[in-house]
């Protein structure tokens, strides 16, 4: 693996594209500050852990912000597949059809009336608005441990942010919301990602977002049957 970094962002590369989903390249200054203040590990420069962490951050940036698959430099776009908690692997085109990054990562088999967040009802734009409103300082990620290096990278990660904005009918709590999971990245001979598998409990995140009381500032109401709701 070659180290990933750029002049414009010290943790991400490939901040160039013909078309950006939200009109311009993303700026990570605020979430980088959140990451540096809240991380539990500081990996040595050039270490496998640092390289994996930068790869994950760069891949997430491309998945969420680049419109054209051909602009994605971390992936073998033709052969790339991603699966969540053992569900059917999806291509980049299939991920786009279900509404992109958040909807893909928060897939669920819960009945519709029990969903605190329903990917089937959200678009790429609406999901982006929901989570950037809920986490105005962003949603940071760090690598906690790397169990194996390329071509099959297995690692433990932590995602976290502070709920400083409303979420689906619930008022902000200013508390930290986080979850921990395991991921597998499979790379080809060109060090391009061809397969991603994530394993985590989405309820670990969502439970932290519905602690607040009812909010009229949210973009929509939360279903009353949500299994994590205190009123159920």
Automatic annotation (TrEMBL):
InterPro entries: NTF2-like_dom_sf (IPR032710), Pathogen-related_defense (IPR053218). Transmembrane segments: none annotated. It comes from the Eukaryota. Residues 213-232 are annotated as: Disordered. This is Pathogen-related protein. It comes from Escallonia herrerae.
């Amino acid at each position: 693996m070659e180290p990933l970094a750029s002049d414009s962002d010290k943790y991400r590369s490939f901040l160039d594209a013909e078309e950006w989903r939200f009109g311009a390249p993303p700026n990570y200054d605020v979430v980088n500050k959140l990451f540096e203040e809240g991380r539990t590990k500081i990996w040595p420069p050039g270490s496998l852990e640092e390289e994996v962490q930068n790869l994950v951050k760069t891949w997430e940036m491309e998945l969420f912000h680049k419109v054209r698959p051909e602009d994605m430099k971390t992936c073998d776009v033709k052969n790339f597949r991603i699966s969540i908690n053992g569900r059917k692997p999806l291509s980049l085109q299939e991920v786009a059809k279900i509404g992109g990054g958040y909807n893909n990562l928060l897939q669920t088999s819960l009945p519709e009336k029990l969903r605190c967040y329903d990917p089937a009802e959200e678009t790429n734009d609406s999901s982006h608005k929901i989570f950037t409103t809920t986490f105005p300082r962003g949603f940071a990620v760090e690598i906690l441990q790397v169990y194996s290096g390329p071509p099959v990278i297995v690692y433990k990660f932590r995602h976290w942010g502070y709920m400083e904005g409303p979420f689906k009918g619930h008022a902000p709590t200013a508390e930290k919301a986080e979850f921990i999971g395991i991921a597998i990245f499979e790379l080809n001979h060109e060090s391009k990602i061809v397969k991603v598998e994530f394993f985590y409990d989405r309820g670990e995140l969502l439970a932290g977002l519905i602690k607040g009381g009812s909010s009229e500032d949210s973009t929509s109401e939360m279903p009353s049957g949500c299994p994590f709701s205190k009123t159920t």
